[in-house]
Predict the structure.
Amino acid sequence: MNVVFLSPHFPPGMYLYAQRLRDAGATVLGIADASYDALRPELRAALTEYYRVPDMHDLDALIRAVGYFTGRYGKVDRIESLNEYWLETDARLRSEFNVFGLKADKIDRVKRKSVMKRVFERAGVRVARGRVVRRGNAPVARHFAEEVGFPIIAKPDVGVGAARTYRLENETDLDAFLGDRPAIDYMLEEYLTGTLLSYDGLVDRDGRVVFASSLVYGLTVLDSVRGADMYYWIDREIAPDLDELGRRIVKAFDVRERPFHFEFFRLPDGELAALEVNMRQPGGLTVDMWNWANDIDFYRAWADVLVTGTTTVATKRPWYTMWVGRKTGRAYRLSHDEVIQVMGPALIHHERIDDVFATAIGNYGYILRGPDLEPLQDAAHVILATA
């Protein structure tokens, strides 16, 4: 099997997917704009060949690179980056070379929030009321505000995470947003309160969920982007209604041979409302947290699905695993060295986070693990306590 891996060097942990693909017997062919010498040794060892392009945004250069691999190794069987930023590029290349997977004609339903919402509604999934506001269409925005009331969430119809997302509290905020917003389509949504959580996992070639997990957030990503410290954990149990709804959405979006990350609010009335789908694994170090929570190797499971069509993953979830992220410039009560000393064996990993992701999850992260949730929550509050 010939697998073209786009941007296999970034984020840094991507090399593990390339390694496991090579271990599973695939020919792994990398494309990126970094120099070959800049790739970590483990990644260089996993790649059969590497093709450097001057600019990853140059589709013609990427087409030439895949064409080169086709001429050298035969038909390309898969094209993948596992990266939200390159999701549309992956799809366009798959269409160009007729490769299995999500193609350009279906990309809107997983990239454009307005189209996602229609898929949710057809599947009978509750969603926040929303309206697309295009450039110069202020009357639509004002009518929607009258319909649902404030606050309102405004986010790019096509966007990643909480970037360029706003919470509009009143008419003054709405006027400021309409007068100074980026020149792109925006989705306005009614503000929902509740617990933010996710249904995540891996789907095999036949559309079966072969691994499932759930994140619970101590606060919303938008709150974190606005300055709050982020913490979240992998739950040891997946609520039956979340599991049922997640599997229904997998079917509605016809997910195949992919990891996925679906976001929901658990509303005060107990119901679930879908926010959006992401056709890739959750960000940060969540995949490593899956491994620590279940004592598994998700990287290998994904490679098995690509190469053989399916996999078997034991998901007994013996551990809660929690992410606690600190932000640079904030005065915390405990120093880093004191955190290491105080947390003891509950702290299983810590590392600095690339600046690209730091706004959402923190500049430095601590991962905690234990059989019970409350001690980990207490530990998170200790780590994040300010001076």
